[in-house]
Amino acid sequence: MTAMLTTSEHELAKAKLNLETSQIPWRELQRFFASGLAIHVSEGLDLVEAAYQIASDNKDQVEQWLNSRQVGQVSDQQALTWYQANTEVWAVVVKPWILVQE
Q: pTM surpassing 0.85?
């Protein structure tokens, strides 16, 4: 994706990501977590918007989210809690990462 998308292209790209988003048991994402590829998106942040900004390589926005801890790698404790509770998470792939949100 290019950094200079028109509004309609932006909305189309987000709509495509939205269609690729689904609920999945956290246990099915263990290999991504083990590889360090599972990224947690906080509940206050739109998962599709986060995926779009990451896919668009918007470094400034992603860095802001990282610094405010709205986006970051899934912690060991979080992964264990989700595993033990057999939690389903919302997930979307932005290669090579899997973005997840409760």
A: yes
Residue 37 has what DSSP assignment?
A: -
Instruction: Answer yes or no: are the C-beta atoms of 26 and 88 closer than 8 Å.
Output: yes
- Angle separating helix axes 7-19 and 47-55, nearest 10 degrees: 120
Q: Average pLDDT in the 40-51 region?
A: 96
DSSP, collapsed to helix, strand or coil, labels residue 56 as coil
Distance CA 87, CA 102 (A): 8
Distance from C-alpha of 83 to C-alpha of 24, rounded to nearest angstrom: 12
Amino acid, single-letter form, for residue 23: Q
Query: In this structure, are residues 44 and 70 in contact, taking their beta carbons and an 8 Å threshold?
Result: yes
The CB density around residue 57, as the number of other CB atoms within 10 Å, is 11
